[in-house]
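Reposting from the mailing list since nobody answered there.

I have sequence plus structure tokens for a pair of proteins and want to know whether others read the tokens the same way I do. The first protein:
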Amino acid sequence: MLNLILLTFSILILSSNASVLDFCVADVTGPQTPAGYTCKNPANVTAADFVFTGFREAGNTTNIISAAVSPAFDAQFPGLNGLGLSIARFDLGPGGVIPMHTHPGASELLLVVQGSIVTGFISSFSNKVYIKKLYKGDMMVYPQGLLHFQINGGGRTAVGFASFSSANPGLQITDFALFANDFPSELVEKTTFLDDATVKKLKGVLGGTG
């Protein structure tokens, strides 16, 4: 029994020394690194650094994907810096879609609060697809780094909130990575098996060149 008490006490001591600072509010005026932002001077930290009000209004879905993503990552919500979590709001208009994408730095948990969303992800080891239609109150988890998507599942605007296991989960949208830059069309065609006309059309839609 004494050994157990001593072990517990030792763990508590180690835990108390694991984090010297209570928080590390992001100094967004400085560079962002893989480890996050440097800490803002504690003397300049205010309650506002720990509050985010950007979800009060719906995002603008008047765009090519009829969708909006409003992030509350460390860059927008400095109090999250170093805490290993963040959140974003999704607004999907009728026919709206968040194209196939990945978050290299985090797993994601989606909660639907309005309407319905058809969503899924693709496993990396077998390319198996896991798809489900979610309704208000439903959640789905997407493991870190896996391709996934969201599509409005009904005729009215759908809203969801996605939480992430990182203050900066990262984002790469597959369509934009292939067709919204200067990736040479010839190489895109060889790596995707798409014909030249299709590649040029998609580049035209997404603003790519080459």
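The second protein, same order (residues first, tokens after):
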Amino acid sequence: MIELLFTVLAAEACVAAALLFKTPLRRLAVLGLDRLKRGRGPVMVRTVAATVLVVLASSVHSIAKIRGRADGELDGAAGGLTPTDQVLLARHLLETSLMGYSLFLALVIDRLHNYIREIRGLKKNLEAVSKQNKELLEENKHLHDQVQRSNLTQSAADAKKDT
């Protein structure tokens, strides 16, 4: 299980790094995450995350039992850890930390993907508004020029009337 967790953690770290920097891999990662979030993908991800969370809780409980046994809370006799308990404790600690890191990176990847999609939408809106603003400014300039010309012709006509 530890090898699987290391593999998952390495893959999640690569995806998170790909999302952080604007590279060609970022586009592929975003496309992959978009496809994952369609259909049954979110349900499967939640199910896997819930399963990992339950295994994480079980591992934390096992760690607490081993430490309680070492402190003498369970059998009333105070003593140190046996070599078997030390190996089990180390294994459970490693599994627990890897599962926690994996869940955390999954959350980070989800948020990064969400922010990238928001930024993409905001950029599209900004481009549309900028284009509309440019058109309105050109129209305003054109109308301003027409008003200036009509004012000049009207002032010239007024000057002819006065003479």
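Reply #1 (J.P.):
I read it the same way you do. The mean pLDDT is 89.
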